[in-house]
Amino acid sequence: MLPISNTVSLAEHEIELQAIRAQGAGGQNVNKVASAIHLRFDIRASTLPTIYKEQLLARSDQRINADGVIVIKAQRFRSQDKNREDALARLQALIRSATRQRKARKPTRPSRSAKRKRMDKKTRHGRTKALRGNVSRDDG
Q1: What SUPFAM superfamilies has UniProt attached to this entry (predicted)?
Q2: 41 and 91 in contact (C-beta within 8 Å)?
Q3: Distance CA 78, CA 74 (A)
Q4: Is the pLDDT assigned to residue 101 strictly greater than 90?
Q5: Helix/strand/coil for 95
Q6: Residue 118's pLDDT is what?
Q7: Helix, strand or coil for residue 49?
Q8: Which of these, 41, 31, 126, lies nearest to 87 by C-alpha position?
Q9: Which of 43, 54, 40, 44 minimizes the C-alpha distance to 98?
Q10: Are 74 and 87 in contact (CB under 8 A)?
Q11: Mean pLDDT of 21-48
Q12: What are the E-state strand segments in the chain?
C-alpha cells in the first residue's frame, strides 16, 4: 500500500513497475543491469477518489499523457531498489500536490509614494535622454 493521505492509499496492483536499463554513464555495469524503473499508473482505472482523479487529469504535467496515465522514469540511483522507492515517492508527491489548496492571490496597488518615485525616475531619465540629442552650433 502506498499512503497518499490519512484516508487515501493506493494498492500495489494499481501501480505497474518495470525494470529497464538506465541511460548515461555507469561503466561496464550499465549495459548488463536493468537498474532504472519505469512506473505507470492509470488515473482513470484507479481507486482514487473522484476529486483526486479530476485534479490530476486537469493538470498540465508532462508526466501525465493524453490517456490519463502517469509515466515516471526513475534512474537517479545505481540500485534498482532505490530507484523503485524514488519512483513511488515521486508518484506520491504528484498525487498529493494535485489536491493541495492554492493560496488565493490578493490583488494590491502601488502606494502613492511608489507612484511618485516612479514618475520622478521617468522624468529624470527623459531629461538625460534629451541631453543626448544633437548640439546646435550658434556662430553669431
Answers
A1: Release factor
A2: yes
A3: 10
A4: no
A5: helix
A6: 97
A7: coil
A8: 41
A9: 54
A10: yes
A11: 82
A12: 2-3, 9-10, 15-20, 36-42, 69-74
Query: What is the domain class of 2-98 according to CATH?
Result: alpha beta
Place of cell 483526486: 52
How far apart are the C-alpha atoms of 140 and 138, rounded to whole Å?
6
- Report the residue count for the chain: 140
H/E/C letters for each residue in 72-88?
A: EEECCCCCHHHHHHHHH
Cβ partners under 8 Å of residue 18, min gap 6: 37, 38, 39, 40
pLDDT at 26: 65
Cα 7 to Cα 12: distance, rounded to the nearest angstrom: 16
Asked if pLDDT for residue 34 goes beyond 60, the answer is yes
Residue appearing with cell numbers 511618485? 116
pTM (predicted TM-score): 0.68
d(CA 36, CA 73): 7
Closest CA to 97 of 121, 126, 116, 70: 70
Task: Write down the residue that cell numbers 555507469 correspond to.
Answer: 26
Extract the C-alpha cell encoding 70: 502517469
Q: Residue 45: what residue type?
A: A
Tell me 30's DSSP state.
G
